[in-house]
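task queued by scheduler; priority normal; single chain, no ligands, no partner chains; default sampling; output format set to structure tokens
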Amino acid sequence: MIIDLRYHVFSLAAVFLALGLGIAIGSALPGTDTLLREQEKVITRLEEEFAQLRSERRALEAMVAEKEEELAVMHRFHREILPQLAGDLLGGCKVVFLKNGETPDEVVEDLGNFLREAGAAVTATLAFDDRTGGGELAALLGLEPGPAWAGEFWAELAAELGGEKTPALLPLMEELAMVRRHLSPPGPVDAVVVLGGEGSGAGLVGLELAAAARAAGLTVVGTEPLTVGKSWVPRYKSLELTSIDNIDTFPGRVALVFTLAGAGEGHYGVKETAAALLPALPGRGTGRHE
């Protein structure tokens, strides 16, 4: 009973204390009219800010729609100008891809389709990663490890791709998921396109093969996408390869077609390492594959 009485006393004291605080706070506030005016000002300001945001959003939506329309027109222009720029410019040219970096598969596929529209045939795509070194790969394929392994490998591979020898190396590489052959008429390989960029550096296996292909007299071009964490252009330059630093863009693909058609060696693209966006347009009938 004593505990209950104390509880009621404390409860009543808390109620009176709350009432006193409420009266004190209420007396410190401005009048009702002043408070309403302040609220109206805040509401008006918020409405103006929302109206400005809606206007800015509509302007941005209109800008996005305009840019999307421009982009659609540009894509259509690319499709329609390609036959005039490069249609059959590479007729008879047989190309091998060396996918030696982290180039996305869709970039490789789009590039292959682009070259086919220009008249080339992509006979095979060889894929290497950073996990296999040159000596390991040579031993894996039954070749003698050493300084000359890349030349021996390329000579064997080119002979098999060209139909000069019964395939032995290619089936083994297919089992190891290192090569994907494409349907194309038999014949000697004319050019090698390195698809590089990124990577830690151990994947230089493909660059060794590219150097061997160049030493065998083939046209070899080193490429990479526009955006990469680590550029391979310095590596291409050290091997005296023509380089293209924006192969996933329309200008980069056109530069590759012109280069394969005999426009000459150089470094093309938009990065600091490039000397020009495009090589000179080869004259019709003067390309190396005409």
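post-processing summary
- The CA atoms of residues 111 and 213 lie 20 Å apart.
- The radius of gyration is 34 Å.
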